[in-house]
């Protein structure tokens, strides 16, 4: 393998819990909720899917369907979709909806998986290029920098910057081109079979991890090192989804 592409949310990093997200936004704005109100509001926000990178919405309101469909194609669409979902939940101040959205983009809202630094460092040491390919509506580079992982990433290919999203092969092709890597010698690592599995159409190998809390997935990325070191995968034969 000449290059490895990684998804961001649920693969290298995991966003904080909905409860922690709400608490942080309240602290940032100087607002308070009673313990029962906080617990109920957190549950409602989680059901609404208002936390980007968190649980998906149980139902997308009809008036938000277009914004939801286009959420990863532009920063304005992303904000509109997620603040629209949070507005389905009553909050003590209307400004808290924007504060919640702003909070999720802060580096403190994200934690790298325990083995992320080890895997990225090992790939760098072996001369394997690394790219981040994400369906996202904002710039995660500051998150990588704050957690010391940006030094291992050679390129970021983000849906909102390219106007296309996974599984469109064009996004993966852009990443391969930026790294100067042939798709047949590139591995895509992600947590979504529908989205990240699109790399297989380009000829990339694909490896899936589980989107779990960081405490429940201490070594999900480590098999990537075995895959890129396996002699049979260094040529043109791609690894197929699920293998």
What does this structure look like?
The chain contains 11 helices and 7 strands. It has 2 domains: 3-14 and 110-233, HAD superfamily/HAD-like (Rossmann fold, 3-Layer(aba) Sandwich); 16-108, no CATH class. It is α/β, with parallel strands linked by helices. The longest helix has 14 residues, at 35-48. The strands form 2 sheets. It has a 5-stranded parallel β-sheet with strand order 5-4-1-6-7, with helices on both faces. Helix content is 39%, strand content 12%. It has helices at 18-29, 35-48, 65-69, 75-86, 95-104, 116-125, 141-146, 159-162, 169-179, 193-196, 223-229, and strands at 3-6, 13-15, 110-112, 129-134, 155-158, 186-190, 205-208. GO terms for molecular function: hydrolase activity. Keywords: Hydrolase. It holds the Pfam family Hydrolase.
Q: Which secondary structure elements does this structure contain, and how are they paired or packed?
A:
Elements: E1 3-6, E2 13-15, H1 18-29, H2 35-48, H3 65-69, H4 75-86, H5 95-104, E3 110-112, H6 116-125, E4 129-134, H7 141-146, E5 155-158, H8 159-162, H9 169-179, E6 186-190, H10 193-196, E7 205-208, H11 223-229
Parallel strand pairs: 1-4, 1-6, 4-5, 6-7
Antiparallel strand pairs: 2-3
């Amino acid at each position: 393998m000449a290059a490895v592409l990684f998804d961001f949310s649920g693969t290298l990093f995991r966003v904080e819990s909905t409860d922690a997200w709400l608490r942080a936004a309240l602290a940032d704005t100087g607002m308070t909720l009673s313990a029962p109100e906080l617990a109920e509001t957190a549950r409602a926000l989680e059901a609404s899917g208002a936390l980007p990178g968190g649980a998906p919405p149980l139902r997308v309101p009809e008036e938000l369907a277009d914004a939801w469909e286009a959420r990863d194609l532009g920063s304005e669409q992303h904000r509109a979709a997620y603040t629209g979902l949070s507005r389905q939940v009553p909050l003590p101040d209307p400004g808290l909806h924007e504060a919640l959205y702003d909070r999720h983009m802060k580096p403190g809202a994200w934690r790298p998986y325990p083995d992320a630094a080890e895997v990225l460092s090992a790939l760098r040491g072996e001369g394997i290029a690394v790219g981040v390919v994400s369906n996202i509506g904002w710039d995660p580079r500051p998150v990588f920098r704050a957690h010391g992982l940006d030094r291992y990433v050679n390129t970021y290919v983000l849906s909102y910057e390219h106007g296309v999203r996974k599984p469109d092969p064009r996004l993966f092709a852009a990443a391969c081109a930026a790294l100067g890597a042939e798709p047949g010698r590139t591995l895509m690592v992600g947590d979504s079979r529908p989205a990240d599995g699109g790399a297989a159409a380009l000829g990339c190998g694909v490896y899936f991890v589980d989107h779990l809390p960081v405490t429940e997935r201490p070594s999900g990325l480590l098999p990537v090192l075995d895959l890129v070191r396996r002699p049979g995968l260094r040529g043109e034969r791609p690894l197929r989804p699920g293998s």
